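Working notes for the structural subgroup meeting. M.R. asked for a predicted model of this chain before we commit to crystallization trials. I am recording the input and output together here so anyone reviewing the notebook later can reproduce the run.

Input as submitted:
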Amino acid sequence: MISDPERAPDRPWEPLARESLYRVIEERRDIRTGFLPDPVDDAMLTRVLQAAHRGPSVGLTQPWDFLIIRDPVRRGRIRELAEKHRRDYARTLPAARRDRFDDLKVEAIREAPINIAVTCDPTRGGRAPLGRHTQPRTAPYSVACAVQNLWLAARAEGLGVGWVSFFDERELAAELGLPEHVEVVAYLCVGHVEGFPPVPELALNGWARRRPLAWAVHQETYGRRGLPGEAPVDLIEQTIAAVGPLDEAAMADARDLQSRLTKPPGALGVLEELSVRLAGLAGRCPPPSPEPAAVAVFAADHGVHAQGVSPWPQEVTAQMVANFLAGGAVVNAFAAQVGAEVTVVDVGVAAPLAPAPGLLPRKIAPGTADLTRGPAMAPEQARRAMETGIEVARELVAAGNRCLVTGDMGIANTTASAALIAAFTGLPPERVTGRGTGIDDAAHAHKIEVVRAALARHGLAPAESAVIGAGGGPAGESVTVAADPMRVLAAVGGLEHAALAGFILGGAAARVPVVLDGVIAGAAALVAAALCPDVLGACVAGHRSAEPGHAAALEHLRLRPLVDLELRLGEGTGALLALPLVQSAVRVLHEVATFDSAGVSDKNGGR
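Returned structure, recorded in token form:
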């Protein structure tokens, strides 16, 4: 061990000391419940604060202060401030999220024997402390380092720490009597606890999962992923390699369970086979309930709009994105009805979009090029968009979602979808090109010719190209790739198609169901299945769109839609309507009694 804490070590720590450090880091927990009333020894508290005070800081300014609060009356007032904002936040959550959030209380403010407000004085150090000239926010960043030191030292002492963040910062500052120039960075509850959970509480209750380290390490440039000592990985190849076939043993268990439930065999029709597939996807029976669910609306513009294939101006894409974010679109209404969360991803909207809650700025390019004049995307753009979809799927699953729903927005995207579907199925343009947002006969005929011209330009016309994929599906039929799917995607697809294909692959790799929406999702699923046939084990066709290309895509993929209401809106609306059916299929396996357990005779008179 190092005897002088001010002296830099001249050699590595002994193994036991090093292991102890790593253990403390690994076992640090955010404690919300289970605080004991036992007082904290002053000497112990001083050691913890000393550790915090040794945190690194910009220019050695040590911009932190520690306000210790023991007064139960004051803590009661602070608890009320936090509870008000906690309730406000709860009202913004979908139902499935809200149910889990109800368990996350702020009672520790009153129950823990000590509260500590860690503050930041960004003016400390004078006019130009070393390191803060070009990075003014390094003062609160430094305070965060002090908070982490405090947290780790407390864990080593056997003390629990909980960080409460449901505050209006200025409101809390006023209650604490802070000067105007001092801000609150952290409000901590500290004390002895009944015990430390084996994993973070948010993981225990299913709120979120810890991201693997491999997702967070990049080599030299952002996006070039790879752990130290390992070669950089190709995210698309890595994701495809993680997609496996359905678990046959789990599927057999699900079929056996279905046969023993208190209903006639096969009485639930398509939902029975769906439950079996979802068990195979999860690798266990019954599978986890596919909730919470999140719909990701991938938005992008299309250069083929210049060919007059849509009566709507291109700026409608950005306007509808604003509508999604304001909660005023059909996807918002349907998501609220079924308790799903809406995330909007800008992968290629032509107009710049202002930052907003619920918007992920992932723009690859301001729309695609005109696919009748050349490739819609450069190969690298198609890859980056697909990687974006994979990352969005990963992050939504890590955030605790157990079902993904595809959504889309992009004026003229049905034209690109028709071109993709024709290329992947071998069907002629007139069979797969629909009326999109509503066009008359003349405009429809023109749209067909635009699709035909694009296919011919890129050597993808049915008579000239090999069909990509011979069909495949949940039963395990193979999809043979007779052309490069990424080349086809770049030639005639959209940025949202590429992102959706990645989103589907990412969901399948995480072993969660992906409920597909309409024709845009169907076109993207063709790309994903051509790259990885096993991806279809995770795919659920939410509905059949009125667009003819969608029926062709589903037939090619051998996916049976759950709903057929002649919808053609997109956004994720049809998939959201089907979401309760997906959840019901799993709920049956969890909640319906067997003949034996219910004491009901089966058709043979047995139990």
